[in-house]
Every structure is written in structure tokens, then in C-alpha cells.
């Protein structure tokens, strides 16, 4: 429920405080939330798609030295394995506007029940999208909150999690705290 926290979350956070001895000065029951649309929290860039097969599998990429790895970028596809990375694409195959920024959230249009944080620049195919979170918000929190909201919305081949559908959702953001969320 927006405005207050649900009792299970309060209980878990209090357990976390006790176990870690962190945030002891925060009374979790007093935290208030405001629903904010994702389109005000993040940019949803229109990247050029990368078509065709990957140039290297994940295993082949792992065998390269650091200098060789600089020539390849991860391709984010429909896979829900390996942090959604299908393989690697040689940099000369990339077109203008085909790389994301670093530290973005990705998802596949077929299954928006899982979102992934990509720490490096990635390229995408037509099965995936990128959300570039504004620096005023915490990337991990936005991923977790978005994942929680969209988990209840069932997406599949008939009902795809398009960029416009995801961006129109709102997530609860804590208000009145000094940290970024």
C-alpha cells in the first residue's frame, strides 16, 4: 500500500536492523511513500537494435584477455540467464546509437518479471529494452521496486512488456529521507 509500509516489510526491515546493526536510527514505521511514474525516474532510450547472431558466446568471451575484451560488447536479448546476456558482439558491427550507458536496467518484452542491472554498456536486440535511471534515484532500489510492481502483471508473447507499458507504471519512493531512492 502506498503511503505506509506493509507489516511484512516492516518486520523484515526490523530483522535486518537487528542482524546488521545498521540504520538503527530509522523508525521504519514512520517512512512514507509517494508513487512516482517511472518515466519521471528514468529515461527509456531508443537504441538501435543489433541484429544477427552474437560473435562470441559467453564462454568464448571469458577466455579472452582484457585487451581483447575491449573489442566486444554484451548483447542483451530475451534470455533470462547470464544476467540477460546472450553473448558478445564485435564493436565494428555496432551502429550509431546502439550502445546504452553504463549502469542501466534491462528487461525482455516477453517477461517483465525479471529486471537486470547492466554495469557495462550493452547493445540490445528487438527482444529487450533499457531503462537509464536518473542519478537522483538509487539504481538497485528502482530495479527492486519496478520488479515488485511488474511481477503481478503477467507478460507473455500475447501481452508484451513494451517500453511504453513499463514506463507508465509508478513505483513507491520514500519521501522525506535524505538518501536517494
In helices, the fraction of residues equals 10-25%
The structural class is: alpha+beta
Shape: globular
Compute the CA-based radius of gyration: 19 Å
Low-confidence stretches: none
Q: Residue-averaged pLDDT, rounded?
A: 86
N-to-C CA distance: 18 Å
Number of helices: 6
- Secondary-structure element sequence? HEHEHHEEEEEEHHE
Major sheet description: 4 strands, antiparallel
Can you count the beta strands?
Answer: 9
Percent of sequence in beta strands = 25-35%
Provide the spatial order of strands within the biggest beta sheet. Answer: 2-8-5-6
Textual characterization of the structure:
There is one protein chain. By secondary structure, this protein is α+β, with helices and mostly antiparallel strands. 25% of the residues lie in helices and 25% in strands. It is built from 6 helices and 9 strands. The strands form 3 sheets. Strands 2-8-5-6 form a 4-stranded antiparallel beta sheet.
Amino acid at each position: 500500500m502506498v503511503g505506509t509500509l506493509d507489516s511484512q516489510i516492516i518486520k523484515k526491515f526490523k530483522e535486518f536492523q537487528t542482524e546488521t546493526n545498521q540504520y538503527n536510527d530509522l523508525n521504519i514505521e514512520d517512512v512514507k511513500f509517494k508513487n512516482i511514474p517511472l518515466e519521471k525516474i528514468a529515461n527509456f532510450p531508443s537504441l538501435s537494435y543489433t541484429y544477427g547472431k552474437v560473435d562470441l558466446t559467453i564462454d568464448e568471451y571469458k577466455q579472452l584477455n582484457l585487451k581483447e575484451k575491449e573489442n566486444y560488447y554484451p548483447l542483451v536479448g530475451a534470455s533470462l540467464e547470464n544476467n540477460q546476456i546472450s553473448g558478445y558482439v564485435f564493436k565494428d558491427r555496432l551502429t550509431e546509437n546502439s550502445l546504452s550507458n553504463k549502469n542501466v536496467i534491462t528487461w525482455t518484452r516477453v517477461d517483465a518479471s525479471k529486471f537486470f542491472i547492466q554495469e557495462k554498456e550493452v547493445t540490445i536486440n528487438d527482444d529487450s529494452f533499457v531503462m537509464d535511471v536518473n542519478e537522483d534515484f538509487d539504481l538497485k532500489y528502482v530495479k527492486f521496486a519496478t520488479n515488485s510492481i511488474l511481477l503481478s502483471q503477467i507478460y507473455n508473447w500475447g501481452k508484451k512488456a513494451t517500453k511504453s507499458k513499463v514506463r507508465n507504471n509508478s513505483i513507491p519512493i520514500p519521501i522525506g529521507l535524505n538518501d536517494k531512492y
